[in-house]
Design goal:
The protein is α+β, with helices and mostly antiparallel strands. It has helices at about 30-45, 50-55, 115-120, 125-130, 135-150, 175-185, 195-210, 240-250, 340-365, 370-385; strands at about 5-10, 15-20, 60-65, 65, 70, 75-80, 155-165, 170, 215-225, 255-260, 275-280, 280-285, 295, 295-300, 305-310, 320, 330. The radius of gyration is 22 Å and the shape is globular.
Length: about 375
């Protein structure tokens, strides 16, 4: 029994990107429109590059769905790359076309180019950078959208927002999940603090003029989770560890925090740990500094995770590098890129966390159909209420 798992395939300028999701129970309502909503959310954001104006990401469901419901069999999702038509020769399948294409031989700092070229023995670095590209996250967002559809009937909701960009902080103290979600969806930077968002836009414009890029921090919130997802027994089943791995696997992410995260190290324990209360027939925490997890398990509070995204590695201004063919110092060449993509990274992180939550949910409650999962879930809630 392998549980919920997925695999993605495809290159940035190849014909399609594909995901195969296995282990989803039968009976989950699913339409292409539900997936396309999240694909569209991934593409927006002030500071995105020209690729987002070319692509209009829409999913084609190739298997696993009939009459608007999953069948319990593997789900195959495909998104076409509109830009592929301009790259037919560069991405050709035929060996005889190799001589017609100039090798990409100048590795870009911050990218997978050099390490990947060394690992796979490829002298044309396009063999590496096409797959390493963040275009791959399109397939992951599609998978996350499916997992979100599975989780919705159980009351689980996800959102994300930008809390820092280029050193500018967004203030969101005291806002509810619903308020953050509404404000983020209305903002072209997914920033709930419009005053801070204005300064962020000015900084993005400045970085564009200077041929530079910007990074930042996003936060993902998940409400409506029961206590007990994950495990305190085995290191590889701890939900916070699995979430950290999922977030760190997103291109350009260099750090993860759960709850207070690194901020907890400067405080005494009495100001870090969440006191436990029992009110209106249930346990709850007086605060949520732990970010919704304790001991590798959800604790029933809102899951709160932050990810740190470095500035986009492709910058307009040249950086020092070396030509693989000559071994001589050579400045990098610019390829089309974003100025910043922190808002989009938050949407991608929503998808990554939705998959981990769905995975741990099915490990906990099991079932080959949505109805069976519901029965198991309701039995567990009854156990929690009588605890």
């Amino acid at each position: 029994m392998c549980g919920l798992r997925f695999l993605t395939a495809g290159e940035s300028h190849g014909k399609v990107v594909v995901a195969v999701l296995e282990g989803l129970p039968a009976g989950v309502p699913l339409t292409p429109e539900a997936i396309n909503r999240d694909l569209a959310r991934r593409q927006v954001g002030y500071g995105r590059g020209g690729r987002m104006r070319i692509e209009k990401d829409e999913v084609e469901i190739l298997s696993g769905v009939r009459f608007g419901e999953t069948l319990g069999s593997p789900l195959t999702l495909q998104i076409s790359n509109q830009d592929h038509e301009k790259w037919l020769q560069k991405m050709s399948l035929h060996e005889q076309d190799r001589e017609k294409v100039e090798f990409y031989s100048i590795p870009r700092p911050g990218h997978a180019d050099l390490a990947g070229g060394q690992k796979y023995g490829r002298k044309d670095l396009r063999d590496v950078l096409e797959r390493a590209s963040a275009r791959e996250t399109t397939a992951r967002v599609a998978v996350g959208a499916v997992c979100r559809q599975f989780l919705q009937p159980f009351g689980a909701e996800l959102t994300s927002h930008v809390v820092r960009l280029g050193g500018i902080e967004s203030r969101n103290e005291g806002l509810t999940f619903e308020q953050i979600h509404r404000a983020a969806e209305e903002s072209d930077l997914r920033c709930v603090d419009e005053q801070a968002a204005g300064r962020m836009r000015d900084l993005i414009d400045q970085a564009k003029q200077e041929g530079d890029t910007l990074g930042g921090i996003f936060e993902v919130l998940v409400q409506g989770l029961p206590p007990g997802l994950g495990s305190c027994v085995h290191w590889d089943r701890k939900i916070d560890g699995r979430i950290a791995q999922a977030i760190m696997s997103i291109q350009a992410i260099k750090g993860v925090e759960v709850g207070l995260g690194f901020g907890a190290v400067d405080l005494p324990g009495s100001r870090v740990h969440d006191e436990i209360l029992y009110e209106e027939g249930r346990f709850r925490r007086a605060t949520n500094r732990a970010g919704g997890t304790e001991g590798g398990m959800t604790n029933g509070e809102v899951l709160r995770v932050r990810g740190a995204m470095k500035p986009i590695s492709t910058v307009l201004k040249s950086l020092r590098s070396v030509d693989l063919a000559t071994k001589q110092p050579t400045p990098t060449r610019y390829e089309r890129s974003d100025i910043t993509a922190v808002a989009a990274a938050g949407v991608i992180a929503e998808a990554a966390i939705a998959f981990v939550v769905a995975q741990t949910f099915l490990e906990k409650f099991g079932g080959d159909s949505l109805e069976e999962v519901h029965r198991n879930y309701e039995g567990y809630l009854q156990q929690i209420r009588s605890y």
